[in-house]
Amino acid sequence: MPRLSDSMEEGTIIKWLKQPGDQVRSGEPLADIETDKATVTYEADAEGFLQILAREGDTLAIGATIARLLADAESAKRDTNGETPTAASPSPAAPREPAGEAIPTSAAPLPGPGDPARPGSGERLKASPVARRIAGELGIDLATLRGSGPEGRIVKADVVAAADGVTAGTATEGAAAAPVAASGSASGAKGDVTVVELSRTQQLIARRMASAKATIPEFQVTVEVDAEAALELREQLRNHASPLPSVNDLVIKACALALRVHPNVNAAYIDGRFERYGRVNVGVAVAGEGTLVVPTVFDADSKSLVEIAAQTRLLATQVRDGTVGPADLAGGTFTVSNLGMLGVARFTAVINPPQAAILAVGAAAAKAVVLADGTVGVRRVMEMTISADHRIVYGAEAAEFLGTVRKRLEKPALLLL
Hints:
- The protein has helices at residues 73-76, 129-138, 156-163, 200-215, 228-236, 247-261, 305-321, 395-410, and strands at residues 10-16, 23-24, 29-34, 39-43, 48-52, 59-61, 67-70, 185-186, 193-194, 218-226, 267-270, 273-276, 282-284, 286-288, 291-293, 296-297, 334-338, 357-361, 365-370, 376-389.
- The chain is of the alpha+beta class and 417 residues long.
- It folds into three domains: 10-107, CATH 2.40.50.100; 111-182, no CATH class; 208-416, Chloramphenicol Acetyltransferase (2-Layer Sandwich), CATH 3.30.559.
- Strands 10, 13, 16, 17, 18, 19 and 20 form a seven-stranded mixed beta sheet that branches.
- The longest helix is centred in the last third of the chain and has 17 residues, at 305-321.
């Protein structure tokens, strides 16, 4: 299972694009894999005949073996009995033993830290990651099952059979399958309740956001920006720039230039130290179908406003179509989240770890302000709030960063230099 995004921990095989025994050449599409951010087409990085080990729908950790490329087609077509090897499996170059032959003990995966023990034996149960996951979802005690895999290892078929009440060869004598949690809706004091299961992407986002709030000592700083000049520049570009840069594109450019001046904001806190980055890659929060995806505008400080506008539109379209690639989801050094188009005046965003900061941008709304000459006038003003990791960015530097962004937006000709 390849790593297809910075935050990917596991992936799900959605569809194999080749058949067992097919000849595969380097660079050919091999499988569609669902990551924490998108469904990505994985391309082969070597040549050979394909032996598929992970079935469609299987979820595996990064590094687990999903297939092998062998030297001959006949070996690649051999039945793998549906078992999905773990990262401890033999190397991809080694052919799998034919069905029915004993597998050496050295090739059997060691029990993981989450494997339960056999009652009264002190022996750790051997169970595949998929079997453990499904058992947890169905509420089945793995200790009540007898595995049908190599060396008694519990595999997916054993758990599914137990859930269906089939005990021959899978469940221990007299063991009944645990009840499966009811789905659908129920009525009560709160009315009809519909239970909605989270997708893998939503589960991972939930874990990452909870971890960010629990482990990052963040703080917020807010400034008001007079957006009149920026909006006027946008109108001046209307008949001369294609695509027309949005207010968010102006913010991205302003942030990118400010990150050059304030390198601690263009950084991350990893393993007790800072990492300052030489490139300025601004992530843009985009709402997808039931999820939130952050594709990256690379080298935003050196791109023109029109280039940024073209890239953000392309990335937003790819996110909503589910076609965004792994390369576009990696490498971000700072993030901009804008809810201004939804009429939100101010909000705080959760830091996208391990980045040092994220900027929340509100709507540009008409407001009575005191002008430079002391008179009161109506100006379109937007609020921007930075959430910063206090281990890297201190209050004064966060305020100075926002001041630099504000200066660029209030004198937007600086964005064209």
